Amino acid sequence: MRAVVYRGANDLRVETVPVPSIRSGEVLVKVAVCGVCPTDIKKIHFGTVPPPRIFGHETAGTIVRVGAKVRRFKAGDRVALHHHVPCGECHACRHRAFAQCEQYKRTGITAGFEPAGGGYAEYVRVMDFVLPGVVKIPAGNSFLEGAMLEPVNTVLKAVKRLVLLPGDTVLVAGQGPIGLLFTRLLTLRAMKVLATDLWPSRLRAARDFGALTPGDSLDDSVKQLTHGRGLDAAVIAVPLDEVVFQAQQLVRGGGQILLFSHTRRGSRTPLDLATICVDEKDFIGSYSADYTLQNEVARLVFSRQLDTRRLVTHQLPLEQTAAAVALASKPAADSLKVVVLASPEGAEPPAESRAPVTKRPVN
Fold first, then answer.
1. How far apart are alpha carbons 247 and 323 in whole angstroms?
2. Are the CB atoms for 154 and 177 separated by under 8 Å?
3. Which residues are within 8 A (CB) of 330 and not within 5 positions of it... i.e. 6 or more apart?
4. Last residue of one domain, picked from the residues 260, 285, 310
């Protein structure tokens, strides 16, 4: 089969590799589409893991082979994959800190070599321990929507870490694909979302998803919107420390600041710790997904209350995976979510040909 193999920092090559063999509790999936995720981009650009590997974990496709012990799935099922599932029994899992579970840190989907997701290939092997996170795609939905379950899951997990009441005001800083998911999920929960970004095109997309955008002064907009109280929470969906500092000033006492994009280790930044102690402004983080949310995520995406198709601006064939990664790492004004098509059946019509999203709350 064809696969895009990581051979070192910024070195992706289209190669021919064996189709993975599966064991009795596993399934083999023909990949239709795989999204390009910032976590894989960082590994590729900075060479943080040893080669060779086949990346890509926002994956959807069709099951073509099932092991003898598999009962829940059959060949022909269209599925969205989930590459991390915790053990559910360790100390971390008992505290629902699933991303800290040792089993969770294992990648359960591979197209060969050290397991790394494998979505940038024609076929992937799905191991038994991650099958609980696999979701069947309804007949009326696309592979592209299936591939978006994983990033939506990461955002919903983060949203659930915020302590908010309907009508609260939340800043979402950064309106890339992840920031827009935050914007939509928060507006669906009846929050007033104030969205910021440097690009007018992304601010327009945020408004389409139900957000308000500030005028010339963010400070003045926050004061006006909250009647001087300050933000109830701020989501930092862009890895810029200056945005964190600004949010720290704009959040009210007892509010929360959620870091979602500061994933590169080793950096240090000063903080006014009195705002955490005296003003009780909580700094929290959220990383990766929670497979226990998969059914809720599937309802949101497949019902199109959260129409993820409108985020996808570029669909590139498997042979152009390196170009897809480059575009996603340095987006243009007209680009949002970039996906790789391992098969033509994964393609979707362009977003502008579909109806606008509807704005209705989630109970």
1. 34
2. no
3. none
4. 285
Q: What are the pLDDT digits (tens) for 61-112?
A: 999 999 999 999 999 999 999 999 999 999 999 999 999 999 999 999 999 9
Q: What is the CATH number of the domain that holds 226?
A: 3.40.50.720
CB 210 within 8 A of CB 195: no
Domain check: are 253 and 329 in the same one? no
Give the pair of three-digit tokens for residue 251: 């959040």
Residue 162 · residue 258 · CB < 8 Å: yes
Distance CA 320, CA 105 (A): 29
104 and 166 inside one domain? no
Tell me the per-residue pLDDT of 272-309, one tens digit each, with 9 for 90 and over: 899 999 999 999 999 999 999 999 999 999 999 999 99
State which of 257, 285, 313 marks the end of a domain: 285
Integer-rounded Cα Rg, in Å, for the chain is 20
* Contact (Cβ atoms closer than 8 angstroms) between residue 121 and residue 169: no
Angle subtended at Cα 17 by Cα 15 and Cα 21, rounded to the nearest 5 degrees: 155
